[in-house]
Specification:
Blueprint lengths: L1 H19 L14 E14 L3 E13 L2 E12 L5 E10 L2 E2 L5 E2 L1 E4 L4 E9 L12 E10 L6 E9 L1
Antiparallel strand pairs: 1-2, 2-3, 3-8, 4-5, 4-7, 4-9, 6-8, 9-10
Length: 160
Amino acid sequence: MKKTHSFLLLLLIFVLFACGVPSQANLGKSGDGKNESINKEIRQLVVDNEHIKITVLNMKKIKKNSKTTVTVHFDILNKREDTIKIQAQRLSVDDRMVDAAIYQMEQEISPQKAANAKLTIRQTEDAEFPEFENDMEMELLISSLEDPSYTETRHVKIIY
């Protein structure tokens, strides 16, 4: 009788652990399991003057756990003799303005150096998120960290 109870108790414990403990394979996954990633090569020269050269390299769209993040990669060459800072402002996607709270791009670049900069747009519950179907436009504010009289604003249109 004791052997039967012990056997049943062990069987019950085994069944409970087998059903109730998540495996390593499904830890951290959401219920829908939908993760998407889209990479789009762009390679578009958008600014080239005596002070700066800016090329849009690519755009990466990642959808993870029903939240989307879009990252646009830039290659920026500072041709000046002082350090500059670049910021994205007044972003619009497919002719619709984007809430400034969901995007960010700020990069400092030393004199005569190049840098990879990223414009990141993150979906939030509070703001409308664009579809990214045709193009995006923004103003890039370029300013010197050493010469307060130098600022330059460049309108940029990226077609993808």
